[in-house]
Amino acid sequence: MTNNTIETIGCDLGDKRSEICVVGVDGEVLERRTVQTTRKAMAAFFERAASHVVIETGTHSRWVSELVEELGHRVTVANPRRVKLISANDNKTDRHDAELLARLGRVDVKLLSPVVHRGTEVQADLAVAKARDHLVAIRTKLVNHVRGTVKSFGERLPMCSARSFARQTHALVPVALKAALDPVYRALESIEEQIKAHDTMVERIAKKYPDVEVVSQIAGVGVLTALVFVLTIEDKERFSKSRMVGAFLGLRARKSASGNNDPQLRITKAGDAFLRRLLVNGANYILGPFGKDSDLRRWGLALASRGGKNAKKRAKVAVARKLAVLMHRLWVTGEVYEPLGYHQRQLEQKRAA
Q1: Residues 6 or more apart from 334 whose CB is under 8 A from it?
Q2: Can you give the residue ranges of every domain in the chain?
Q3: Domain 8-112 in CATH 3.30.420.40
Q4: Helix residue ranges per DSSP H, the chain
Q5: pTM (predicted TM-score)
Q6: 260-269 pLDDT tens trace
């Protein structure tokens, strides 16, 4: 949609300072300004006649977009990953990016692949799950550090879960390493307590969203994965077809077909990395030795059995994509999940024939 009746303002948000370019209705640059990325400075600049403001997604885009909208402006939040003119610009500077955002917004906002930020409450709830994920990552690094340090002294600590590592191995650390590793063990104990506290918060938050129970019917999808899925997508009606979820989460293979050449490429990884990792972990469980029999497991194992060096990896990603589609379908329909529903229907058709 062309918008040439009001000024268009491109704003390249930086962590401390942001570049702003104002383009008039005739396409001429009217003003360039560097503004501090603070509420006070942003509010002072945007106390002006209503305009079309274009910004990129980023750390500050949420609060800036909310502030600017409250001041009466129309805001478009661009996805730079989908706009090669921005991400692949060979003359990329904050000044040029601000003008480019303004000009693209002036021509057609669809060129910017606009995104809509989640609600404040949803984002805050999602932050709990992400904080837990970082705590788990830190715990893993500390456990690996302890194991590696002890190994360098010719000893090995017994295998155990990360959750029980501090309790089961602290007494086995060589005396010479006590001074170095005791503080690490204290940190591990503290982190374990915080992870448990976050687990409790995740359980409590999940009760606020009834849809979490619907999408967690599938074996391999726990409360954490279901909650992050619901909070990340937020609006189940945003997709006209459930199969679109796979592409939204970056689980669709890239395409670069030309003539008779159609190579098999890696997935786009364009969506939320945290949720994508959780879905792959779920797929790993479904395909693993403890996975329960289901249509999805049978399909994935058949795909993995086709051979090839990366067959199992590709099968895991493919199952993760189908898992996302299935979760969204359950969310939309509210149906009771039948693990072997497709298999049962096939048997019934054969009997009827």
Answers
A1: 214
A2: 8-112, 120-206, 211-345
A3: yes
A4: 39-45, 61-70, 84-87, 94-107, 120-151, 165-169, 178-206, 211-215, 223-233, 244-248, 273-287, 295-304, 311-333, 341-352
A5: 0.85
A6: 565 566 778 8
